[in-house]
């Protein structure tokens, strides 16, 4: 397996003393290139922290993160900015489109900021993939939620990043729009060999992926290959059962 990103013994804490929270507790993980990976776990399991550390949006306390052959630890701000601009795409739950720009201008914005000319053939291919040919001149308030998220996905793909991180990309969408966005992400992997890592709590969304990694208490506790909804639900149920004795013990101590 070609590795697009890897983390080794990653730890991250917030607060100190009695208020300390260990968000990541020695996570080691490889992300395969050209695969669609979901990261799942209960609230507070560390999945968003892991994604932010991998995407160079946050820094870990210890351990290492690599995007391709580049080690993030110790990179200066300028180098980190270049890495995020050239190697990483990000899709946010809240779309994060610029309201005064058209869909086309939003898609091309990262390239414009980087001073790079768009590859017109690739741009046309991305727009065709997301199905927005007739919406490029529309501003975000003229688009549905699903269309806005498709613009956000196209923006993430336009610079041909090594890896795209998607943080609950269907969280603000109805089921039909969510299915459209998930199908789009699936096609970008199948047709363009894109690498995508998606944080989600939804077993239906996870079923679109090649692999699901499960986190609990800041640690990787399980994974599935070629998942379906039922298999994901089964693992989640086991995780809930495993957490129940700890919760009971904590309640008794309190």
Structure characterization notes:
With 254 residues, the chain is α/β, with parallel strands linked by helices. It has a single domain (3-253), classed as P-loop containing nucleotide triphosphate hydrolases (Rossmann fold), CATH 3.40.50.300. The chain has 8 helices and 10 strands. Strands 6-7-8-3-9-10 form a 6-stranded mixed β-sheet, with helices on both faces. A hairpin with a 2-residue loop joins strand 4 (62-67) and strand 5. The protein is globular, with a radius of gyration of 19 Å. It starts with a strand and ends with a helix. The model has no long low-confidence stretch (mean pLDDT 90). Keywords: ATP-binding, Nucleotide-binding, Transport. It holds the Pfam family ABC_tran. InterPro entries: AAA+_ATPase, ABC_transporter-like_ATP-bd, ABC_transporter-like_CS, ABC_transpr_LolD-like, MacB-like_ATP-bd, P-loop_NTPase. One of its GO terms (cellular component) is membrane protein complex. This is Putative ABC transport system ATP-binding protein.
Provide key terms for this protein.
4-stranded antiparallel sheet; 41% helix; 254 residues; 8 helices; alpha/beta; 25% strand; 6-stranded mixed sheet; Rossmann fold
Q: Topology, please?
A:
Elements: E1 3-14, E2 21-32, E3 36-40, H1 47-54, E4 62-67, E5 70-71, H2 77-87, E6 88-91, H3 103-114, H4 120-130, H5 145-158, E7 163-167, H6 175-192, E8 196-199, H7 203-206, E9 211-216, E10 219-225, H8 229-253
Parallel strand pairs: 3-8, 3-9, 6-7, 7-8
Antiparallel strand pairs: 1-2, 1-4, 4-5, 9-10
